[in-house]
Write a structure and sequence with these properties.
The structure holds 2 protein chains of 2 kinds. Chain A is of the alpha+beta class. Chain A has 15 helices and 25 strands. The longest helix of chain A is centred in the middle third of the chain and has 18 residues. By secondary structure, chain B is α+β, with helices and mostly antiparallel strands. Chain B has a domain of 127 residues: Alpha-Beta Plaits (2-Layer Sandwich). In chain B, strands 2-3-5 form a 3-stranded antiparallel sheet. Chain B has a two-stranded antiparallel ribbon with strand order 1-4. The chains are: A alpha+beta, B alpha+beta.
């Protein structure tokens, strides 16, 4: 067990915590708050975070190596001897580079530390252009925050500022505003340590140092846009989000990226029913700190005007209440004759709760209704990072993996379906039933984002012409929606709430950031209406129901998943 | 720098005594002004009625009327689409869509410009917060006061219309002269008005 002592600053209206120790450092008296860190290996920044003290830092990032180059985290460090005497080191040291041990004293409140922070910031700001009005980072910029919190109000710089030329196409997705850079080298270390492809470097020296790509290369790897989040200032900007909106207008919800079965935790930023960007959210249980560019830039279809926006019957727009009533009656009729002539497909883009509701509806129709999992889009094989300099796979332990399975909830939907019938039927099974002419009515809960070749080919869709009643519940038109009797608009991942289960069995909460466009309803709501249950689809209630009825989901009995989600299986290696 | 707790001074309203609690003296004091004015008006000395529209009022140069979007020396819109005005606007009447500026602007350090810039002049409360927030003095409130329109849509002023207000107010012998508040580098303009003989209209007419 190890105890670290961190200087304590009383916050407004906060009761003084117990166990404070008074110590004299130089001429100042400082209150020290002891904190137990157990056997953890921490640096001063992390140890101070344990008691809620923020040590400002730019170059240090928990997922990257320590370089201690920005000097923003300078603190006074010392030791509390067993007899209670506090002995300090004579100078300030970078907190990111200084590991703590039993008895370490971290002081952030003395005039010496404040002076060091102020001088560091003055140095960083010497060449910074202060073009905050046109900078995309303004509002979430660590340079703004720290200057406000620790810096000087005015600049004493009287020389001309350096104005190196911008590099608008550092890579296909990233622009570099060279003059805003503070040379923390986070981006360089990211491309070397996490992506491995090492496109970035620092060229020139001293005051003229700047970030650049190696000649003839571009910052073009599948993790490239993470440097935008890593950049503590507005030097690296996402081309996708460039000048689109100011960040203080965005409303952020915590959600899950739906584009592969890694299930990266994300922040979803939207405003006025437009999704503006996705950002990775730290989740030690899921993916760590980062996300891939495919997922980050894959949200475009949510804002698309080409989506199915109205329920239609044979091409004519109808009301929702007529649609659900007619569909229900048609399916009831078919199931009454012979339950096995009715089939439902649940795509791996549906949430687990929606899969449950649809499966329950199937069971209320008849015990023989067939359930099948929709096609699971798979592209190539799992893509592990870091790679080597040429982009080849390394054999070391991966820091980030982009899965080949390009859907968010295959596991969740499969487990729900397995609960309701012995065998998990695939889309091929469904096609073979259709081919054999065994089906009269088919409900295709698709919700596939429109990309690439689409989820169903024309030949596959043509087979459904044999089926009397086809209901397609989808985001965009597809070959099968052209021959369907009813076409219902589905809601995208950013418009609904529910649970996605990733490849490792981690259940995470998806939350809505924008309301469904057009006449869309959330899929869960449509299934509730088909089930003739009253009320709105409330995700907490449905999740409890899911935990009760499907054994795999039993750990979710609380109805809440927390920030990081809940493991439904024992994770491998644990 | 954030404000330190020690630097905050908490103000309290003064205690009211028994005499003030009667409120009658305060009411009488207020009536005194009214009575003074009505007596003045009776004898024709303090008439304040203006014969609008036959006689147009002479407004002070810091009157807050219709907005304009300023142009730079090359006639381009000065606005950099930073959204400060729309953020500051208490009536939420400014709508901006930003876009990367045309490439030939880049040499002047112009990377971002407003693709559209719309002010709902009906929703605006003419508080002037937008011009205070503007970091590049691009938006200003002119002395143009008689704003009329036949429909609500007409009162949604877009970028072209706001720029035309600039052209209208800056041409020689303009009826509505340049506003004087936000000229860069000159502080306390209102204090200079008296020297220029541009005092408030109500006193000027008396």
């Amino acid at each position: 067990m190890a105890t670290v002592y961190v200087s304590y600053t009383p916050k407004n209206d906060e009761k003084q915590p117990e166990g404070l120790i008074q110590a004299t450092i130089g001429k100042e008296t400082v209150a020290l708050l002891p904190v137990e860190i157990g056997n953890e290996k921490l640096n001063c920044i992390q140890a101070a975070q344990k008691v809620g003290t923020q040590i400002p830092h730019y170059c240090w990032h928990p997922a990257l190596t320590v370089v201690a180059s920005c000097r923003m985290c300078l603190v006074e460090v010392g030791e509390r001897k067993p007899d209670g005497a506090v002995v300090m080191q004579p100078r300030v040291v970078p907190g990111c580079q200084t590991p703590v041990k039993d008895g370490t004293v971290i002081v952030t409140t003395t005039a010496k530390v404040h002076g060091a922070q102020q001088q560091t910031l003055e140095g960083i700001l010497l060449n910074h252009p202060l073009d905050c009005p046109v900078c995309d980072k303004a509002g979430e910029c660590m340079l703004q925050d720290y200057t406000y919190g620790y810096g000087r109000a005015t600049s004493r710089m009287i020389e001309q500022k350096n104005t190196p030329a911008n590099k608008p196409n550092l890579g296909p997705n990233v622009s570099l505003f060279t003059d805003r850079c503070i040379m923390c080298s986070r981006c360089v270390r990211f491309t070397r340590e996490v992506a491995g492809t090492a496109e970035l470097q620092i060229i020139n020296r001293g005051n003229h140092a700047e970030i650049n790509v190696f000649p003839g290369e571009a910052l073009d790897n599948k993790l490239a846009s993470n440097v935008v989040d890593l950049c503590p200032v507005g030097a690296l900007c996402s081309n996708d989000f460039l000048y689109k909106h100011r960040v203080w207008n965005l409303k952020t919800v915590d959600s899950v990226c739906p584009d592969c079965s890694t299930g990266c935790s994300i922040h979803l930023d939207g405003n006025k029913n437009i999704v503006y960007r996705l950002r990775p959210r730290d989740n030690p249980k899921a993916q760590g700190h980062f996300m891939c560019d495919e997922g980050r830039l894959g949200y475009g279809y949510v804002n698309s005007k080409d989506r199915i926006l109205k329920p239609t019957r044979l091409g004519k727009a109808i009301l929702w209440k007529d649609a659900t009533k007619d569909i229900r009656e048609t399916f009831e009729l078919a199931a009454k004759k012979d339950g096995s002539t009715v089939a439902m497909m649940v795509s791996p883009w549906m949430t687990s709760e929606e899969a449950l509701l649809l499966a329950k509806w199937a069971r209320t129709l008849s015990r023989d209704v067939r359930l099948a999992l929709g096609p699971v889009p798979t592209v190539g094989k799992d893509d592990h990072y870091p790679k080597d300099r040429r982009g080849n796979d390394l054999n070391s332990a991966p820091k980030f993996t982009i899965r080949a399975e390009k859907c968010p909830n295959k596991k969740g939907v499969s487990e729900v379906l397995k609960q309701f019938q012995l065998r998990l039927h695939t889309f091929e099974d469904l096609l073979s039933w259709v081919d054999a002419g065994q089906l009269q009515a088919v409900y295709l809960a698709a919700g596939y984002p429109p990309r690439g070749q689409g989820w169903i080919t024309t030949e596959q869709a043509d087979k459904f012409k044999k089926v009397q009643t086809v209901v397609v519940h989808d985001l965009a038109t597809s070959p099968v929606s052209d021959i369907a009797t009813w076409v219902l608009p589905a809601a995208a991942f950013a418009e609904k709430e529910g649970t996605f289960v990733n490849h490792a069995g981690l259940a995470q909460a998806v939350r809505w950031g924008v309301t469904p466009s057009g006449d869309c309803r959330t899929d869960g709501q449509v299934f509730l209406d088909l089930l003739q249950r009253r009320g709105l689809a409330h995700v907490g209630t449905l999740r409890k129901e899911l935990a009760k009825e499907v054994r795999y989901f039993a750990p979710l009995a609380e109805g809440e998943l927390g920030e990081y989600g809940i493991h439904l299986e024992t994770p491998q290696g644990a | 720098m954030p404000i330190k707790n020690d630097d905050v001074i908490w103000m309290k309203p003064p205690q009211i005594g028994l005499f003030e609690q009667l409120y009658v003296p305060a009411i009488l004091q207020g009536l005194q002004t009214t009575v003074e004015h009505s007596i003045k008006a009776l004898f024709g000395k303090g008439q304040v009625t203006q014969q609008f529209p036959e006689v147009e009022p002479k407004l002070p140069a810091n009157y807050r009327g219709v907005h304009r979007l300023n142009r730079d020396e090359q006639g381009r819109v000065k606005c950099v689409a930073c959204y400060m005005c729309s953020t500051a606007c208490p009536a939420h009447c400014i709508d901006i869509v930003a876009a990367p500026a045309p490439t030939d602007w880049h040499k002047d350090g112009r990377e971002k410009y407003p693709e559209t810039f719309v002010i709902d002049e009906l929703r605006c409360i003419y508080c002037g917060m937008c011009e205070q927030a503007c970091p590049v003095d691009a938006i200003e409130l002119t002395t143009l006061y008689d704003l009329t329109g036949m429909s609500r849509e007409e009162m949604m002023f877009d970028k072209e219309k706001l720029l035309s207000v600039f052209d209208e107010t800056t041409k020689p012998n303009a009826k509505f002269p340049n506003p004087v508040r936000t000229k860069a580098g000159r502080l306390g303009v209102a204090s200079e008005l008296a020297d220029q003989g541009l005092t408030s209209s109500s006193t000027a007419q008396s």
